[in-house]
# Entry
Amino acid sequence: MFEKVLFPTDFSEVSMHALRECIPQLFGVGAKKLYLVHIVDITATDIEAVELMKIDEEELNRIADEIRAKGIDVEPAVKIGIPSLEIAEIAQENNVDLVLVPSKGENILRQMLLGSTASNLVRATKKPVLLVKYEWDEEEEKIKCLSDCREIFKRPIVALDFSECSEKVLNVVKKFEELIEGITLIHVVDYGRAEELERNIENAKAKLGEFGKLFKAPVKNEVLTGIASRSILGIALAKDSSIIVMGKKGRSIIKDLLLGSTAERVVRDSKLPVLLVPCE
# Structure
């Protein structure tokens, strides 16, 4: 299991809901240490940063005490800077296993030009980032999580492109293998000439078969053709998957925004949690 988890909070309603509900559930299935982080954004505040930092430290320490009361080992930290860069640095310094970020609404990664911390963090950090989806419940008039965080890792669907990144993705999945009840490995053939399609499909099936031997839990392999993001989302729904796991390759911001990477499209359209594994 991911033993060291970093949770960045901005004190928003979504963030506090995740901290009070999802985080304790994760620690109930094996997490050991929580790094609770708040960054005073120097680009977005008119208040003297040092003064604001003192106020936020008091608030974060109060929240940390609340979480400790649930039996969780918490280390709070407040810093001043650019949130995504500071969070990525803290994650690296403490060698965390996972960064958990609650996300609400669509186009999470496309908010980049507006300075979305979540999207910039995905680019900046070299650690796996788990995006847990939230939405506003109109009937109950409150924020709700779209997943049970105790169940997140039970039925993963793992997208593999057979690049060097695939090994990194599989190594991350192995970290929560003891929680897996069944796993789906998927590869989408969206390359090659028409006359090569059948051969490419057979080769992909063989490769997935080899990868499947790495796991003790039951493995189902899926090789599809077409648009990768649609195929991944479709199979995730059909297989009643609990989380989508995939690699996130580094590309230019403009290229991602104009063309949209497979990861960006999956994050945008999925209601399931998405675990993004950095490939660099």
